[in-house]
Design brief:
Strand 2, helix 14 and strand 3 form a beta-alpha-beta unit. It is elongated, with a radius of gyration of 37 Å. Helix content is 41%, strand content 14%. It has 29 helices and 21 strands. Belongs to the N(4)/N(6)-methyltransferase family.
Length: 774
């Protein structure tokens, strides 16, 4: 922002001095912004006002509809798409009756301009100002502001509005970055998206459309149009957008009005749940969606579109987790790509680091990345410096996508590390402490345009200012050199296949008194609570004999038990508490306990390390003891008397006919092909890089033999875990580990230097202690 625009914004914000005391600080912006906008519109209309008034006088006599009347008056508006038919302006409203005059003045704007003030709820604040006897004072101050286009360009006025919004956000504890994007980032993103369209930049009369689904105050739309017009004044740019915030929408709509755009193309509403431009496709798309904002409020709409429409809708590839909707905006933009035969489209979107790597194989995020990369839509990702945005200092990235890649970019993705291309601002604006100048932007755009690999290249940037707090090291670690780099990868290099590695279950079993005793209590959520109840109220009164009438009877203690459970076992639901207080629950467990004791008498209490013999032993014992077990009882007893033991025999799941295949869990044992039961606790996963030059099985098996089998010889690949799309073994995943590719190893200081520092600090501490105790 230049000093002139900064001063102008400060002058406008000085209206807050008049409002202080009668208005809350959070309301200042709701007064200042619409008044600044009103004055700007008035200045823009100044030259066409006489002709408009003359034409309006003629049209007023015609008995025609408002829409037709506006079209006739617009002919006299000098190319503008709005007008005001009031003979008054801010300087002639007068003091008496100023409220009625100002309201009438607003009503004399054309419909689109009027609606802008409706979204600001301007009439409400006019009434509040009038009640506080401040309306005339505010009008008198605003009318002196020179906001004429000859004095303040559209670009500069945009900066003024952004500064006012930033101040408004600070005063009302809102987030300024939700409403607009810093101009240096806008300039960079716009340059990357537009630079490859030679026709738009050179051909006279070419028509292009530009779209922003998170339009804010229209910064991206304005910058895109300005960028093209700088290089090709004869090009026709048509702007489209949608914005959720009414105030930001009003400013964007006013900006488009002043620029002569069709303001009907700027929509108000939630882009994800209610796309007002659902049938439209665009040449260029630019967006800075909110970082890390959840979409829980519209989850039903999004999920329905994904489920019912699939790839015929916007969200066919997948849905990210509900806590971050950034990738939904990216999918939305992809759905707006023109068909390649119609010229194709290009996208520039600013995202935080999460969409690069969040979500494992098969997750919604991974499937979205997979769709983008396998469809060869991603051209480049540029890492931006931190502290570039008004509301956050986190790392951010510009993604550039296109469905009309030039031949040399086919199947390739360029990663550009511009994290050090910035300078410090003289004064921070919110969280924004860094700024990219024209040279920094040119470095990135040149690298992108030339599609070149750049090894870590030292930059002539000042070192970071270090804190002067604490004791400086005698031998400080050298400052890492700030570098710029670029790398190019094949799209498949970001992909991997996650295979599931299983190992056999090994169980021992023993009908010991201790293990059998655990059957007195349910094994699930009630286990701990039942143990407490038994210790407090059951012993020694409950007997295991069949004729014990007291067993499980808790009616006399129900209230105190319930109070204790509510306090110390808060996770228990009401139904579970009722079950615990029911004698039938205790008697059922007692029955299982007694059956297990009968089995113990038949089997003995020795330890067995081969669980494969368990079923036959139980059958024989049941027959000898004359008892039967239902499925639930069998499982309870088996769980109670068995445990995992690495020294035990493997548990056989099934004996197969046919050939063995140990890589996939079919082992040849004593002339039989055995499949073992898998141990879920030993289950592991391996990510194997995609290799299109070989079959999936060849890649998986080579990796397993080299990396897994030498360490766990009894492991195998679970062939049932297959990718939903290609049907091959393993789930395909994609991630873009940006930092890993550009990591530069910094060796630690020599141990001698570290020891010297420690000795010096220790000596200093001892000297201080001697002073204390002397």
């Amino acid at each position: 922002m230049t000093q002139e625009t900064n001063n102008l914004a400060a002058d406008l914000w000085a209206l807050a001095d008049l409002l202080r005391g009668d208005f809350k600080q959070s309301q200042y912006g709701r007064v200042i912004l619409p008044f600044a906008l009103l004055r700007r519109l008035e200045c823009v209309l100044e030259s066409s006002k006489p002709a408009v008034l003359a034409e309006a006088a003629k049209v007023e006599k015609m008995a025609i509809a408002e829409e037709a009347r506006e079209k006739l008056i617009l002919r006299a508006a000098g190319g503008l798409r709005f007008f005001n038919t009031s003979p008054m302006d801010l300087s002639t409203l007068g003091e008496s009756g100023i409220k009625a005059n100002l309201e009438r003045y607003i009503q004399c704007f054309s419909k689109d301009a009027r609606e802008i003030f409706d979204h600001f709820k301007f009439a409400e604040f006019i009434g509040l100002l009038n009640d506080a006897n401040l309306l005339y004072k505010v009008v008198q101050k605003v009318r002196t502001m020179d906001l004429h286009p000859k004095a303040v360009s559209n670009y500069e006025m945009g900066l003024v509005f952004e500064e006012l919004i930033r101040k408004f956000a600070e005063s009302s504890n809102e987030t300024a970055g939700e409403h607009f994007t810093p101009r240096d980032i806008v300039r960079l993103t716009t340059s990357l998206v537009f630079m490859e369209d030679d026709e738009a930049l050179t051909k006279p009369g070419i028509i292009r459309t530009i779209y922003d689904p998170t339009a804010g105050t229209g910064g991206f739309l304005s910058a895109g149009m300005e960028y093209v017009h700088e290089l090709n004044p004869q090009a026709v740019m048509r702007a489209f957008g949608q914005e959720l915030n009414p105030e930001s929408y009003a400013i964007c709509k006013a900006d488009m009005l002043i620029k002569g755009q069709e303001v009907g193309n700027i929509k108000l509403g939630n882009t994800l749940s209610n796309d007002h431009l659902y049938a439209s496709k665009f040449d260029y798309m630019l967006s800075n969606p909110p970082f890390g904002v959840d979409w829980k409020k519209i989850e039903g709409d999004i999920t329905d579109e994904h489920t019912l429409k699939g790839f015929d809708g916007r969200f066919g590839p997948g849905l990210p987790r509900v806590s971050d909707g950034s990738l939904l905006f990216l999918l939305h933009l992809i759905s707006k790509l023109r068909d390649v035969k119609d010229g194709g489209s290009r996208i520039g979107i600013i995202l935080n680091g999460s969409p690069l790597f969040t979500g494992g194989a098969g997750s919604g995020e991974s499937e979205i990345r997979r769709h983008i990369l396998e469809s060869d839509l991603l051209e480049a990702i540029v890492a931006l410096p931190t502290d570039m945005f008004y509301n956050t200092g986190i790392a951010t990235y510009v993604w550039v996508l296109s469905n009309k890649k030039p031949a040399e970019r086919k199947g390739k993705v360029q990663l550009i590390n511009g994290a050090n291309l910035c300078g410090k601002m003289r004064k921070s604006l919110g969280s924004k402490r860094n700024v990219m100048d024209e040279a920094d932007i040119a470095t990135i755009t040149r690298c992108f345009g030339q599609f070149e690999v750049v090894d870590a290249q030292a930059l002539n940037k000042p070192a970071e200012a270090k804190s002067n707090r604490g004791r400086p090291a005698a031998n400080p670690k050298p400052e890492a050199v700030k570098t710029f780099a670029s790398k190019i990868f094949a799209t498949h290099e970001f992909g991997y296949r996650r295979i599931t590695i299983e190992r056999p279950l090994r169980l021992s079993w023993q009908f010991s008194d201790e293990r059998i005793a655990s059957l007195r209590f349910e094994s699930g959520a009630l286990n701990a609570a039942m143990q407490w109840v038994y210790a407090e109220y059951g012993q020694p009164y409950w007997q295991d004999a069949a004729d014990c009438d007291l067993y499980g009877q808790l009616d006399d203690y129900a209230e105190e038990i319930r109070a204790h459970l509510k306090r110390d076992f808060a996770s228990l639901k009401e139904k579970q508490i009722k079950d615990l207080l029911d004698a039938r629950t205790w008697l059922a467990q007692k029955a299982v306990l007694l059956k297990a004791r009968a089995l113990q008498s038949a089997i003995g209490s020795a330890q067995h390390d081969d669980f494969n013999a368990y079923d036959e032993a139980i059958k024989a014992a049941c027959k000898r003891a004359g008892i039967t077990l239902d499925a639930k009882e069998k499982k309870q007893i088996a769980d109670a008397v068995s445990w995992k033991n690495p020294a035990a025999e493997k548990v056989v799941k099934k004996v197969h006919k046919g050939n063995s295949n140990p890589l996939y869990g079919l082992f040849a044992v004593n002339h039989e092909v055995i499949e073992y039961q898998a141990d879920g606790e030993l289950r592991d996963f391996e990510n194997i890089a995609l290799d299109p030059s070989r079959t999936v099985d060849e890649v998986n098996e080579a990796y397993f033999i080299a990396e897994v089998q030498p360490h766990v010889p009894d492991a195998w690949i679970d062939a049932s875990k297959r990718d939903a799309k290609d049907g091959e073994i393993g789930i395909v995943g994609y991630e873009i580990p940006f930092n890993r590719h550009f990591y530069q190893y910094q060796p630690p200081r020599p141990l001698e230097e570290i020891d010297a520092d420690l000795d010096a600090v220790s000596a200093e501490i001892m000297a201080l202690l001697r002073e204390v105790y002397s």
